[in-house]
Specification:
This protein has 456 residues and is an alpha/beta fold. The chain has two domains: 2-370, TIM Barrel, CATH 3.20.20.80; 373-455, Immunoglobulin-like (Sandwich), CATH 2.60.40. The chain contains nine helices and 22 strands. The chain has helices at 54-66, 104-119, 154-157, 188-202, 220-236, 258-261, 280-293, 318-330, 349-362; strands spanning 22-24, 27-33, 36-38, 40-43, 71-75, 89-91, 97-102, 123-129, 208-213, 243-244, 270-271, 301-306, 335-338, 371-372, 378-379, 387-391, 395-400, 405-409, 413-421, 426-435, 438-442, 449-455. Strands 14-16-17-22-19-20 form a six-stranded antiparallel beta sheet. Strand 2 (27-33) and strand 3 form a beta hairpin. Helix 1 (54-66) packs parallel to helix 2 and helix 7 packs parallel to helix 8 (318-330). The longest helix has 17 residues, at 220-236. The relative contact order is 0.11.
């Protein structure tokens, strides 16, 4: 597989200082691992894969690796969507939970997940807190709800019995416990113990990235507190970590996103998953705008959630999901992943074809050798007809989402053009063209095609 040439096998097992994912020294818009640059691309059928039973998890990870994938999302979520999820805390004979004691099965699953992803060369982006776990139907059975544990009361914790609102309204006191917020000394120690327990496993592995929350609309101080908490505990263990926050705003130019974009001292990378609520040229130019803000101090830009699947509640289509992943790859993002069903394509024949297509691009030119192309590079282009990345003077990669034809500014000389069918994940025709300042490129047919043009 192409993947084997890009990522060392067994990377997560007893990872040392040199074997930790970090921004690549030669181009910090991309990741490196073990001193070698790596482009992350993935898909999976759930957000909290670590909870899956052994056989199902192994099959999912093996299938991803076979498609060339090397990147998954993992919320530390315990809400019972599928019925096999476990809570992290020990349930007593009385039926109540003791937040001072752990459920061994939850943590066994987490350790197994980290080990198995490492063995397969798959990088993990953890989300420590997921707001959906603590509201609506998932709050009444949760161990943190006072009547479900032996550790604090409603009065001591400040919690209510119900939180029926969408968690985006940020009314749950669980997310206001830190010292510069409400300084909730009844609950915060248990949150701290949970994060320390998580780190006791994850810090042993170098293939892990950290996100504080899933698409939060919370206060800045909550995110800052946990970023600093994790960094301090990691430093104490001698294990450098890469941290970000994922904000909820669909408009990536919203002020809330500047909390991450403007603070490289706190956040080592950026997650712009919410740009995937946009489409077409708006999606592309948003991505370039984010990248432009980071030019003085480049950092990797990840999109761990790419929305887009037929019939989902956002109105996005399968085609939207395919386009967004490929566009972000050409826009210079360091990591792309298809979101789980029903909001994304998950690990499916269509997403697997795109993953294979991206690796086929890499077989000719690595993404970190490219930069997003300026609009003037393509002429006779219609709106949303094509997008491109290039290595000035020597390579151009053009994505056509529905066929089409463009003219590309290219130095005079001979060029080799390879077509990649992103709907099937395989190579198509190859040709040689002569440029006299322009190359005329027409997709072989309707559908998702990527042209890789290399100067000979």
């Amino acid at each position: 597989m192409v993947l084997a040439t890009l990522v060392p096998a067994g990377m997560g097992v007893a990872a040392g200082q040199a074997a930790r994912i970090r921004p690549w020294a030669s181009n910090p818009f991309y990741w490196e691992y073990g001193g070698r640059p790596v482009f992350l691309a993935g898909a999976s059928d759930d957000d909290n894969l670590f909870q899956w039973p052994d056989a199902e998890l192994a099959a999912q990870l093996d299938r991803l690796a076979r498609a060339g994938g090397n990147y998954v999302r993992n919320t530390m979520s315990d809400r019972k969507d599928r019925g096999w999820e476990e809570y992290p805390f020990l349930r007593l004979a009385s039926g109540k939970y003791d937040l001072n004691q752990w459920n061994p099965e939850y943590w066994r699953r987490f350790e197994r997940f980290l080990r198995w992803t490492g063995e397969r060369g798959i990088f993990v982006q953890i989300e420590v807190w997921d707001r959906f776990d603590y509201s609506r139907e998932f709050w009444p059975p949760h161990p943190y709800r006072p009547e479900n544990n032996i550790n604090y009361s409603y009065e001591e914790s400040g919690f209510s019995a119900q939180y029926p609102q969408h968690p985006g309204q940020n009314r749950q006191p669980f997310f206001f416990t830190t010292p510069k917020q409400r300084n909730n000394t009844a609950v915060l120690p248990y949150q701290q113990r949970f994060v320390e327990k998580l780190l006791s496993y994850s810090l042993r592995h170098g293939h892990v990235l950290y996100t504080i929350d899933n698409e939060t609309s919370g206060e800045e101080e909550w995110s800052r507190y946990w970023a600093e908490f994790i960094r301090e505990r990691a430093a104490r263990a001698g294990a450098p970590v890469m941290i970000t926050e994922m904000w909820d705003d669909w408009n990536v130019r919203a002020a809330r996103h500047r909390r991450t974009l403007d603070h490289p001292e706190l956040y080592d990378f950026v997650d712009m998953s919410q740009n995937n609520h946009n489409s077409g040229d708006l999606h592309w130019y948003n991505a370039l705008w984010v990248r432009s803000l980071l030019l003085e101090r480049p950092r990797p830009i990840n999109t761990v959630k790419t929305y887009g699947a037929d019939g989902n509640r956002f109105g996005h289509t399968d085609q939207d999901g395919v386009e967004r992943v490929i566009r972000h790859a050409l826009a210079g993002f360091a990591a792309v992943r298809f979101h789980r069903p029903p909001s994304g394509l998950g690990l499916s024949p269509r997403s697997e074809a795109v993953l294979r297509a991206l690796r086929l691009v890499e077989s000719s030119i690595r993404f970190w050798e490219l930069e997003p192309a300026p609009p003037a590079l393509l002429s006779s282009r219609e709106e949303a007809e094509a997008w491109a990345a290039y290595a000035p003077g020597r390579a151009v990669v053009i994505y056509f989402p529905r066929g089409g034809a463009v003219e590309v500014q290219a130095p005079a000389g001979e060029w080799k053009v390879k077509w990649i069918d992103a709907d099937r994940g395989q190579t198509g025709a190859e040709s040689r063209l002569t440029s006299h300042g322009l190359l005329e490129l027409a997709a072989p047919s309707k559908g998702n095609w990527i042209a890789v043009a290399l100067r000979e």
